What we know:
Layout: H1 4-30, H2 47-53, H3 56-89, H4 96-108, H5 111-129, H6 137-162, H7 166-173, H8 178-189, H9 191-207, H10 210-215, H11 223-231, H12 237-268
Helix pairs in contact: 1-12, 2-12, 3-4, 3-6, 3-9, 3-11, 4-6, 6-9, 7-8, 9-12
Amino acid sequence: MNGRRPFVLYTAMAFGYAFLYLPIVAVIAYSFNESRMVTVWGGFSFKWYAELAGNAQILDAARRSLLIAALSATLATCLGTLAGLALARFGRFGGRNLLSLLTSAPLVMPEVMLGLSALLLFVSLGELTGWPERRGLATITIAHVTFCICYVTVIVRSRLVQMDHSIEEAAMDLGARPWKVFFVITVPLIAPALVAGWLLAFTLSLDDLVVASFTAGPGASTLPMVIYSKVKLGVTPEINALATIVIVLVAAGVTVAGWMLHRQGKSTG
């Protein structure tokens, strides 16, 4: 019986991983299909990648998505680092529980609710102040920053909690000011967490569809929105090629972020 238990476990794991990842492998494989029929193999070809390179709508959406992701990740990393520092180092202060709640709620809140609340906020601001005049790159970026901050805060806070404070205390004993200690000592020590947080935020922003759909306006579609709109009319080989590129980019970002966190854990362990 004990000999059969690992076999059953490994078989179940194999079926589970196959169920999750075989469709992704099929999309990647058919992106190199010569035939226009996505379910009929017509030979190996890079034809649809060349077609994709000449599609102005997709390229414009891709540039917009990359810009939004870079801006969102950078702003989320800066704000998330400050929030993580406050929660990890400042002890109990007025509003600490509220700050902790605000930085963790979007982690469990449905994306539909995040997108709807952001839409209502921008509509109300537009009526009261005249900004934004229309929804676009700025509104999508702000909405993405609000939920990306949470992930960065969790990563940076955990790193600060595990870090040895004696080096910082020694620097302050020698006369270094708090801001200099932070930039010269603390930031280099938590650099792996900052990089991992930035990469994770970039990936989440690049991959988002729901929140962007609520906060985007006419002519401001992101890459996931373009993919979704095209898939509703039927999957084409161009979409397979585009999906393959997105899968590779997202997988690379998540892998690098995971490697940075693993390396950080080994260095502190």
